[in-house]
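Hi W., the D-xylitol-5-phosphate complex you wanted:
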Amino acid sequence: MKDYIIAPSILSADFANLGKDVSDVIKAGADFIHFDVMDNHYVPNLTIGPLVCEALRAYGIKSTIDVHLMITPVDEIIPQFAKAGANYITFHPEATKHVDRTIRLIKEQGCMPGVVLNPATSISVLEYCLEQVDMVLLMSVNPGFAGQKFIDSTYEKIIEVRELIDAVNPNIRLEVDGGINLKNIAKVAECGADTFVSGSAIFNSQDYKKTISQMRELISQS
Ligand code: DX5
Ligand code: ZN
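Structure:
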């Protein structure tokens, strides 16, 4: 039995009551907190930075925080996120000049690195870095906004990356992000994902606990 992780994206949380909303979603069964960082430069939207991560830790959030950097440049902000309490730090390879250097920096700072592939990014970027990372994040929407539709070509990509990961180190997490809901999560799991980001499908639901339990049920049956 695989160890499946549900990681609600706080992009769809109530930013005016973020501490409480995050704590509620953890009580409802969330495993990781997916923390979307956007800079209005790499992506056309602007969100939150290390101060907010630090504030969540100060509020008492103890869960694993999975920081997804949609920013360029990348390296400057990594020590700040490490200090703010991040656990995973993932970045888009095309957003940094030196992918291997960025991976090393994340590790030196005591965090777990991951690389993020956009829908049209080839999995060939993993060829010389897969062994160095703790996570591969496949985007199933173009990064920048919550509530977009899942792009179907991701299914095939998940199958291909699962094969690569199993050949190198099955402990590397295979995370999928964007448009995941109760209708498609079983298929995402079947293809080989083990970590599921979901923003609007969880935070826009009336009952977080019910939605997360239903997701878990669907994943476990796959
Ligand atoms: C998109 C973000 C995702 C997104 C997920 O750029 O990385 O984390 O907000 O939200 P949903 O589940 O609504 O697509
Ligand atoms: Zn994300």
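The CA atoms of residues 88 and 112 lie 5 Å apart.

W.
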